[in-house]
Amino acid sequence: MAATRRELSVRGTPIHLWQDGAGPPLLFLHGPGAGGRWLEFQERLAEDFTTMVPSHPGHGGSPAAEWIEHSSDLAFHYYDLLDELNLARVHLVGASFGGWIAAELATMASHRLASLTLIDPVGIKVDGWIYPFLFGMDLPEVVATVFHNPMAALALTPPDQSPETLAMQYRQGTALARVAWNPYLYSPLLRRRLARISTPTLVCWGAHDRLAPLDPCGQTWAKEITGARLTVFADSGHLPHLEEPEAVARAVADFAGKASGA
Amino acid sequence: MKFYYFHLMPYVMDHDEPSSWVTLSNRFYDPARGRILYNQYLDQLEFAEALGWDGLCVNEHHQNCYGTMPSPNVMAAMLVRRTSRAKIAILGNGLPLRENPLRIAEEIAMLDVASGGRVISGFVRGISAEYFSTGVNPTHSRDRFYEAAELILRAWTEPGPFAFDGKFYRYPYVNPWPRPLQQPHPPVWCPSQGSSETVEWASQRRFPYLMVFTPIKRIAHIYGEYREACQRHGYTASRYQLTVNVPIVVATSDAKAEEIARKHVMWVFNTGLRMHPPFWRPPGYMTEASLRRILQNPPPLPSDLTFEQADREGYVVHGNPATVRDKLKVFSDELRAGIVCSGLNGGSHEATLEMMQLFAEEVMPAFRDDASVDETAGVGR
Fold first, then answer.
1. Fewer CB atoms inside 10 Å of the end CB: C or N, chain A?
2. Partners of residue B277 in chain A, C-beta under 8 Å
3. Model ipTM?
């Protein structure tokens, strides 16, 4: 199977989107550095779902959008995408930064979601935890913070070190910093709004996440979202869908299947 | 040509840490030694006025051993009462780094009034690392700079109170007391490393452009761009709009000067500006166009700069008085710079005072054909 790359305009904002598979629609929101990537995890999801993976504006192949200055701008952008794609109800999955945006969208539009899966999301202020400042780290430090098995980082290796690639990485970092530099990796408004989420929610967490550790971050998310189920992945850091793609995809399929009454 | 004495107020030290900025622990800072250094540095600035320097420069940097002046206005305040003639150039305040930039308008006005109108007000964005030490979003840097500059200039020139409703800064009442003494406002300078955006912004407003620690070839190129931009805006740039900051070492012999430059000037580049790589390039601090220009022709990291390269490319001026005069003629006659800002560092307080005296007696007089000119007349406002 080969995923198809689509170019869309979402209320005037151009983006790229990968799509493959058949079945109920599933939208995946990626984390930093993963824009424009179709990886094993997405491949697995496509076995059970019509899987759509858009790149955030400024990430992957999507052009930067100056108007996006806050995480809620991105959440509204994806609300608009649901309309653009005529998705009355969708399974929504978000990892890391993408989990933040997915949660924010869920606080606005639970009625449009068939299920919600958050994979090591950031986005809320957690008592007793300050996220390590990735913007101030060089690559080895970032890998050591984000991955349990550093080999898994190879999936996100840039194709080369050409000026074009470096400019794209700078554009991605800039798009992320616009919404996440300060407050760093969270919106002060989001945590108290998580109670509005009425979608069945699965919270996946890497046991060795050093950016947002299970205790206290994962536990806080599971507590704040009514009825959320917390599943821990023993051999993963911050990105279990890269370190244990098959297990996480299976957890999503099982949970989403039950949520839809399949 | 005018001479301004430029001080970084470094906390000179050797260390093996990966960065002299942001993360170099302040446990290395010994306040008892700091007290001695601050007072020696202020003595040097006061001595510079006595020796005939036209201006005294201070500047803002945060969380490092390179320059220990997080508030340049505090140092300027000390100089205001201890000097009487020299301009006091604050090069500059980091506009975007402030949450309340109206405070800059107030502090500069205070200094201007108290000093009898001797203040020059530099506007800077702050260097990349400062977005890590202040938490200010680097993607806002340029827009905050322009907005704060507009606010400050309006606060100095428009009768208050008026309301200001910007994207980053909002005030129901802008009405600072005091107003500045110089009219319409103290001269504004733009210290920069040559981004085309800043050249355009400064030239349009007749704000002098200060090239800091830049190779001569690049200074010539940027001066050319600046002069051209001034023509485009309908006027010819005064030579006092073209200024430069270059370290100078003068000694009784060329060999002695080279020895001092190798040790003390290179400390500034190799240790003072040693920086953990991510601190050089925070996301969004520069435009993508600027980034692409840099990627095409990457400048050496200061920590990798060798003395030979620094010497060859003109990052430093050193030699006996005759050699230094010859080298400075490149600035006065070829680059046609109007003001040279320079710190002199002999390695110790006493050696620095001696070097200053030698410079004032043997070098400065050769460039004094403009002694009666006020370099701030019609410039920077």
1. N
2. 138
3. 0.95
